[in-house]
Amino acid sequence: MTPEYFVDIFRDALYLVLILVSAIVIPGLLIGLVVAVFQAATSINEQTLSFLPRLIVTLLALMFFGHWMVRMLMEYFFRLIEEIPNLLY
């Protein structure tokens, strides 16, 4: 296995992780921003007010994107398994 081949596999893995994490984190960040603007506009300084909406949106994102995320991980895993013979040469 050449170092370039390993770097390609590692780059693909990092890209996959970045995409999967973004699908969960970005909706939570957007809801957190909306709640923060609401808190600033109304002068409500309750720390727990921003936690529950972010938790709900994160769980909804996991429910909505879960099938897609598992499919992406399975495709990457199967591609790695198919590449095992290339690693031996």
UniProtKB/TrEMBL annotation:
Transmembrane segment boundaries: 12-39, 51-70
Protein name (Swiss-Prot/TrEMBL): Flagellar biosynthetic protein FliQ
Family note: Belongs to the FliQ/MopD/SpaQ family.
Species this protein is from: Vibrio stylophorae
Membrane topology reported for the UniProt record: Multi-pass membrane protein
Primary residence: membrane
Secretion signal span: none
Pfam family, one: Bac_export_3
Keyword Protein transport: no
Database matches in InterPro entries: Bac_export_3, FliQ
Protein's job: Role in flagellar biosynthesis.
Compartments where located: Cell membrane; Bacterial flagellum basal body
Keywords in alphabetical order: Bacterial flagellum, Cell membrane, Cell projection, Cilium, Flagellum, Membrane, Transmembrane, Transmembrane helix
Gene, per the UniProt record: fliQ
